[in-house]
Amino acid sequence: MKITVSVIKADIGSIGGHIKPSERLLDTVKKFIQEYGKDIIIDYYISYTGDDIAILMTHTHGKNNEKIHKLAWDAFKAGTLIAKDQGLYGAGQDLLKDSFSGNIKGMGPAVAELEFNERPGEPFLFFAADKTEPGAYNLPVYLSFSDPMHCAGLLLSSNLTKGFKFRIMDVENTKGDKVIELRTPEDMYDIAALLRDNARFVVESVYSRHSEDQAAAISTTRLHNIAGKYVGKDDPVMLVRTQKDFPATGEILSPFSLGHLVAGFMRGSHTGPLMPVKLNSTISYFDGPPIVSCAAFSIRNGKLSEAVDAFDHPYWDHVRAEVSKKASDIRRQGFSGPAMLPYSELEYGGIVDILERLEKKFKITK
Ligand code: 13P
Ligand code: 13P
Ligand code: MG
Ligand code: MG
């Protein structure tokens, strides 16, 4: 029996700005899934990361299933009514279409799904990031699956030495999914050449070349491309199976110790380091810094173990202190140069108006 793990995430409103959803909102989404999902799903886990609510579900209906996607969409719709009732900020923010049309992709919420035959021991990780974009996972995924500096298994396990297949999407192409498949180790430089551009190229999935099984799934939603204007940052989710034919859990976590600089932060328009945080963390300094959480699970016949917080360990306190310092460092230069995103990526219309007004005042002199 094949099991599908689907995670669908949306910002449908939060307390005090873009900080965190209310308890009543979380409870509403949870009760909705409990009641209307009981004949469709096997198990579920509801969590939040910053102002985003993620609904993780296990079931046997496969990827892109209408019933599963509609269940999550309807739960977010029900939640939005509560968010409005409580005066939460950005109520229904990520629900960009009026009515559900078969598949939640392209409607605002972020989606990542894995379908697999369960191994005797089946561990997987669920990552959720806030105040950043899908390309934020590019570097960690590249390092975990192709660099022995982070993935010792590439040297030490014959299950891994064949390498991995990366499916990479050009998210600027809005007419359809434009995807390329590249393989490690032989295509490593080509993969790096694409993945350096987090705004345009996003790893969508990774497959083992040993078993051909899917290792990772990453949401590729770019809200700006759907709405045509700034409506919030994309705040991507990722699912990764670990161990045996895949990197070990610690090899997947390892690159997150870098706190690499990503796009997002205040008004989705700045550069900041990605901080690995504990589950159900809130947002604070300069509407950030960009954060990522990780829940580790084991699964049997679709039933989930309790979630274990992969970034709740003294080691990550040390990383968080270093990332905080990095955040302060870049913030010290405010809007200047790389601290604020380039014009092409700026999420706010205001600066466009300023530049248009000033353009008329420029004079060309000989
Ligand atoms: P407003 O312009 O509605 O305050 O939105 C700003 C925002 O949400 C960035 O934090
Ligand atoms: P979210 O995308 O998390 O809602 O953040 C929006 C924002 O503008 C923060 O400043
Ligand atoms: Mg928000
Ligand atoms: Mg968010």
Domain tally: 1
Tell me the quaternary state. single chain
Q: Using only CA atoms, what is the Rg?
A: 20 Å
Q: What structural category do the secondary elements indicate?
A: alpha+beta
What's the total helix number?
9
Mean pLDDT: 96
Largest sheet: 10 strands, mixed
| Low-confidence region ranges | none
As a percent range, the share of strand residues is 25-35%
Q: In one word, what is the shape? A: globular
Number of strands: 16
Share of residues in helices: 25-40%
Ligand types: 1,3-dihydroxyacetonephosphate, magnesium ion
Structural overview:
The strands form 3 sheets. Strands 5, 6, 7, 8, 9, 10, 13, 14, 15 and 16 form a 10-stranded mixed beta sheet that branches. This protein has a 4-stranded antiparallel beta sheet with strand order 2-3-1-4, with helices on one face. The protein has one domain (2-355). By secondary structure, it is α+β, with helices and mostly antiparallel strands. The model has no long low-confidence stretch (mean pLDDT 96). It has 9 helices and 16 strands. It is globular and about 75 Å long. The protein has helices spanning 23-36, 66-85, 138-146, 153-156, 188-195, 223-227, 249-253, 314-331, 350-359, and strands spanning 2-10, 43-49, 52-59, 110-117, 123-130, 164-170, 179-183, 201-208, 214-218, 237-241, 261-264, 270-273, 275-276, 291-300, 303-304, 308-309. The structure holds 1,3-dihydroxyacetonephosphate (2 copies) and magnesium ion (2 copies). One magnesium ion (MG) is lined by residues 11, 14, 18, 51, 90, 93, 232.
